[in-house]
Amino acid sequence: MKNKIVIFNPRSSNAKHRIPNSILQVGASIHGKHDYVFVDGNLERHPWKKIKSHFDSGAFKYFCVTVMPGPQLKQAIPFTKKLKALFPNSITIWGGYFPSNQYKVCIQAPFVDYIVNGPGDVAFPLLLEALENNKYAKIESIKNLIYLDEAGNIVQTPKEKLLDQDTLPPLPYKYLNSFYSLDVYLSKTFLGKKTFSYHSSLGCPFTCSFCAVVPIYDGRWKAKSAETIYKDVKYFKNHYGIDAIEFHDNNFFTSQKRVMDFSERIKNDGITWWGEGRIDTINKYSDADLKFMKDAGCKMIFLGAETGNDDILKQMNKGGTQTGQSIKDFAKRLAPIGIIPEFSFVLGMPADSPEKVMTQINSDIAFIREIKSINPNAEIIIYLYSPVATEGSELYEQIQKAGFNFPKKLEDWLSPEWENFDLRKNPLTPWLTPKMVDKIKNFETVLNGYYPTVSDFRIKGLKKKVMRTISAIRYQNKIYRYPYEIKVLHKIWKYRQPEIQGFYSE
Known about the structure:
With 506 residues, the chain is an alpha/beta fold. The protein contains 22 helices and 15 strands.
């Protein structure tokens, strides 16, 4: 049969890999309706050879790629470009955060034909149907699409309402298993020996100006029920023996009722879990709720603290009721309960002068130290501010006035500095001087030396003691410059930063 589909997941990291939920969701939307294959760049030694072999057979027409910012661009861009050159009649379709947020540079590339802008559960099968039946006029009526019309103008169709997640077809786990053993995806992490990754909801009800999710979902959130989640979890426990879950939702804890329902269902299964939430949302849970979650397996919660400065929180349009004081209060509240708060901070927001930027950095460093004194078990994740502001927003205007611009050509995103930008480690922002960046990174090195992350379970016992001892003088006396001795230990022991590499796994 001709006109088959390749659904490709580009390599995202060099570490152990999780179940590729994004391409599973795409496959679910067409399962039983179209012939398709999965290609996972994380597990293929030579993914381009596999992709090319499919198209060499003459049976394939569609190349569909999910693209997150950062490492995935290294395969997504060159592979799509080569495929279009070798098979000019092929149709290339991109989806994911990157093409949705950077849609102009993506759709103007001559090798990207269509972008699915947000969820593709409806848009993707409708697009295939229109293309297969040569009903091109119908494409403009399909929501969640971006493409060029015959005159070369960008067409961005309206967004569809988020669907009831329980009504969507089940993810084709068994079909993925015919390409790659699901056991390979179930890694040993600090959470458990077999860690399962899962998406239980879409979007987030908040509109933070620095968040890549906002332009896609516009403050919308839809979730699977606790019953549906537990059904999937139970399947993997019974068939694959999972004992841990990473919930990769943008905001797992939005609905307290759903979280408590799930906790009730899973409490006797011996499964440890991690998820992402907001401080001002979870702070509304009672102590009894939090203790019950802990007893039901909740080990760590990722929380966007961002900054201890209330004025910057407003600049970020963080929304809700979060303040610097509420961050400290919540860190203190979780300490006796035993759930580890994993606070992320974004340093280096634009300001009126270099002096003010440095003042903000120094203030946040002091605030982070205060958090660690309140709850030493709190994990700290530090990012440099990388603009993802929506065009037309106040923050976008501010960063443009400061001299910041995104690449004008898709291939330019392949340069090393832009890869680091996407990892929020080298933002290329003109208001951040090398001195400022060095101060943030050196503080981070000393902090990670004195408080090694619990998520890297190799750094324990004697290693942890040695690292803390060597870092103690620096941390206690606030000496951050040139922490080469700590960097050497990090290199020797291959210290892992979860914000870049995820939880350590074997």
